[in-house]
Design a protein that fits this description.
The structure is a homotetramer.
Chain A: E1 5-9, H1 15-20, E2 30-34, H2 37-45, E3 51-58, E4 62-63, H3 65-72, E5 78-86, E6 89-93, E7 104-107, H4 112-122, E8 127-130, H5 134-142, E9 148-151, E10 162-168, E11 175-182, E12 194-201, H6 209-218, E13 224-231, E14 239-246, H7 252-264, E15 267-275, H8 290-304
Parallel strand pairs in A: 1-2, 1-3, 7-8, 7-9
Antiparallel strand pairs in A: 3-4, 3-11, 5-11, 6-9, 6-10, 12-14, 12-15, 13-14
Helix pairs in contact in A: 6-7
Chain lengths: 308, 308, 308, 308
Amino acid sequence: MSASRYTYLGPAGTFTEAALRTLPEAATRELEPMVSVPAALDAVRGGEAAAALVPIENSVEGGVTTTLDELAAGEPLMIYREVLLPIAFALLVRPGTTLADVKTVTGHPVAQPQVRKWLAAHLPHAAWESAASNADGARLVQEGRYDGAFAGEFAAATYGLEPLVTDIHDAQNAATRFVLVGRPARPAAPTGADKTSLVLWLRADHPGALLELLQEYAVRGVNMMRIESRPTGEGIGRYCFSVDCEGHITDRRVGEVLMGLKRVCRGVRFLGSYPRADKVAATVRPDMTDAAFTDAADWLNRCQDGRP
Amino acid sequence: MSASRYTYLGPAGTFTEAALRTLPEAATRELEPMVSVPAALDAVRGGEAAAALVPIENSVEGGVTTTLDELAAGEPLMIYREVLLPIAFALLVRPGTTLADVKTVTGHPVAQPQVRKWLAAHLPHAAWESAASNADGARLVQEGRYDGAFAGEFAAATYGLEPLVTDIHDAQNAATRFVLVGRPARPAAPTGADKTSLVLWLRADHPGALLELLQEYAVRGVNMMRIESRPTGEGIGRYCFSVDCEGHITDRRVGEVLMGLKRVCRGVRFLGSYPRADKVAATVRPDMTDAAFTDAADWLNRCQDGRP
Amino acid sequence: MSASRYTYLGPAGTFTEAALRTLPEAATRELEPMVSVPAALDAVRGGEAAAALVPIENSVEGGVTTTLDELAAGEPLMIYREVLLPIAFALLVRPGTTLADVKTVTGHPVAQPQVRKWLAAHLPHAAWESAASNADGARLVQEGRYDGAFAGEFAAATYGLEPLVTDIHDAQNAATRFVLVGRPARPAAPTGADKTSLVLWLRADHPGALLELLQEYAVRGVNMMRIESRPTGEGIGRYCFSVDCEGHITDRRVGEVLMGLKRVCRGVRFLGSYPRADKVAATVRPDMTDAAFTDAADWLNRCQDGRP
Amino acid sequence: MSASRYTYLGPAGTFTEAALRTLPEAATRELEPMVSVPAALDAVRGGEAAAALVPIENSVEGGVTTTLDELAAGEPLMIYREVLLPIAFALLVRPGTTLADVKTVTGHPVAQPQVRKWLAAHLPHAAWESAASNADGARLVQEGRYDGAFAGEFAAATYGLEPLVTDIHDAQNAATRFVLVGRPARPAAPTGADKTSLVLWLRADHPGALLELLQEYAVRGVNMMRIESRPTGEGIGRYCFSVDCEGHITDRRVGEVLMGLKRVCRGVRFLGSYPRADKVAATVRPDMTDAAFTDAADWLNRCQDGRP
């Protein structure tokens, strides 16, 4: 039964699975790794899964373009949760291996830039070869093909390996952001620390359109958190924008921003309002609270009735 | 009975009376000249008159500060109509007087800068002395104290004078704008060529507050037509703003501007939505029509319901 | 000899003379009262006076439109100093008069709204009649025509009167701002607490032109202190703007604002950079100091030379 | 000798080489394929090559993040030329192969989404496997491992293959943009159809910083053409921006934008001004021409000298 199944970007034993397992409801779901982000999301679109967890952004590599493009096109989907997972690799080895024994290492290509400095400092002579995934790298170490694999510490047990060194990460604060994606439904209630995601297509004939878009946010005191341009596929110079802002669609100020964008943009896709993983409450200007909006609406009604 | 009485800035025989008589309903009202703008408006506030016609702006002299300040303070009033009257003076003389006979002329002080060039060209040697009003000047000519008075042509009959020269005005397009002011009531229905007037007090602690105020208009595509600063009385450097914009309070884009201003300003006074005297229809951007606002609100509702 | 003569808005014994006498150099100048602001300024334009002191703004009455319009049109003039004079009236009476004796009072029409509340509280039955100036009112009391005159305390001696009550002013912080105007010359050196005045004519065909104008200031972090619209004389709906901002024309950020305005406006008239009367130093954002401008210009040169 | 050598993203026979060969000077240079974008650029940094041609943007896939990140970090480099290459694949086969014979196809992973629809329509049963590059795919067809390779038509001769079908591309107007990168030097002279590239780091403590950044462009009428956010590596939520705009650094309006950005941003890296590949001349507002800037500067000088 689909409601009990969550897909995720596989294979098993990668950071995506670790991120998924941080969600309480994951304990009661059947978790199924998929070969790609599109495959994980198509299972949701097709009703075979209730939701999919996929990476959307990495503080070292940037936006996960496949995820951004899948959410922007095709059958609409919505984001219901986000997970922030600090990036920290373990060097997994077969039991008994010491650092001096490690001549060859492997891992997913995106892992390499994140452990490069560590490698240069601690294993300057080790040869790197890429694996299809971090989990696959661990398997290849298990099979004896390499001496060490960079992967999540959690993958050690699965492959009978030991974490020789843990908490390896070249960049401070490195993290990956994942989103739990489902079919469109009513967003969860606001928590006071929420985020709202959109895809926006500007009108092509309008040079200042991006500035106009940002002013829709600014004039209602809504803080933009991320903006990422993506090609629309119509040719060089044609972009849409993936945008996250503070607040929830049921916040009056956010609702008015969304309506403003709906009017001035060529297209808007609502991707959901959901709790911020960092739980930081929005800072709302006193003149932009729901109460301020309600007062203003009441006043407008009184003016229209001749009782200003 | 008050509903049948309109007051206006007197005395009789001035441009204000002429402006009032351009309103069809003036024919069925008792028209009563008052000694000052505050007196004319206080009669409305006190219920002795249904409405008052007062000048608010002159294309040569600028804003009529007494009117602006009276509308900004005290018991609230609202504007229901505006009248634009071209400024054109007649030189009124006693019957039989020729231009060569005119050695002394009079008129209200504000008339002088508007006929100065004409005087220099046609009566370079005539001496000017100011009168309390244009009508009063005509009376003084009737009494023989001056040879000519600059006043509206319509004043000639009242004082037994003749218009020796008509259509005198130094500036092209010179006009005075008058407003018909009543107690607060439901504004007249929109005509498609409307104007909305406000008084706005900025938050004192906010350097960019005026820019913010203009952006409330700009982001909804509402064209500002007039902005005039007035002192708040709290000291040099403290101002409020009298602002007219295109559109009617029941236009969605105007309503949203008003609510925005209500939130970000320290104070807003709604002075009315009323037909433009020049009957120029507002140019509304396609993304700012009522239909565009309604579509956006429908879409927001669908998003909130999970049907984006 | 003209360099030794300063004109001012007369007659003698008014607040303008008192303001002029606060300037140290006034002690060594011949001070000549003139019948009007245009007369005072024309004496400067014609070379008969080195400078003229005229009121430009009052915290109760607003801008002095004659001064604003005279500075905007005709032969160019420049402001070199400003003076802020607190508004405080004295009730001047003939020696021996007591408050109970005062049945009639006089003063300039603009004085009336500034003493109205005091009158209502202390002399509720006294009749007010207007005089041509506060000084003229004092003279009429001297002649016995009225019992009391509202004027500056400094006027008492001139007319053989006594100040019965002093420091009368309905509004707190009420003040009048005067400017010392001369023929164009190099502005005085910046003091760190300066003000720059302009007159700006917007391009007629541009609805968002006022917003664009304010953004020229905002983008360089220059704080606008006063904006006043005045009719251009071309008809209702056509305005120019009298604008004061913080800073001196030789401040880099102010210079760039001025050049920006020169480009985007239909017309700009520079009215001077001069020390602020309140001596409040400008708050300059760290990225808008002269040093920040110089650094940026140096960097641009290096980029153009291929040494970024 | 390095001045005669250009590196490019290899291997030989790919679109990057084809793009490089569209540059006239390529005919007289030694062209050396490199295994990666960093390798191609490091050869320039190290002085072993005069310039490197690398892809920076693809109208289907988006920005080439390796190139964007390499240009933003490390030893400064500058862009001197851009090349736009329409994306059109040929299906390369061994001589004699017909469409009916093609059961297996290969190509670079980024080629797949660009030929997916064509495959579905014309070879619905063909199996796709990815190759390391399009050129490598062609080699594998030559070796008999696959029946067809998607690659540039120009690669056919190198591998003894024939183009069975040409001009295959799912998206209209699909193109890749390449840049020719060298060590910093004086930019080429402006052509009237130029582009300027920057990397911008916002101040972290400033919510409206992106809006402020766009206003630096808007207030000088400089049209932004591309903006792409990239992580700074300091953690989720910390971005820098890769931005292209119309115009040349020696255009006055562009120079002032650059200086403005230098002041308000935490960091700015100038990546060059170079001719636009599409040769579209910039549309310059009349108030933003070099002449308008020069006039404004002259006027400012006159004002500072007291000759406004």
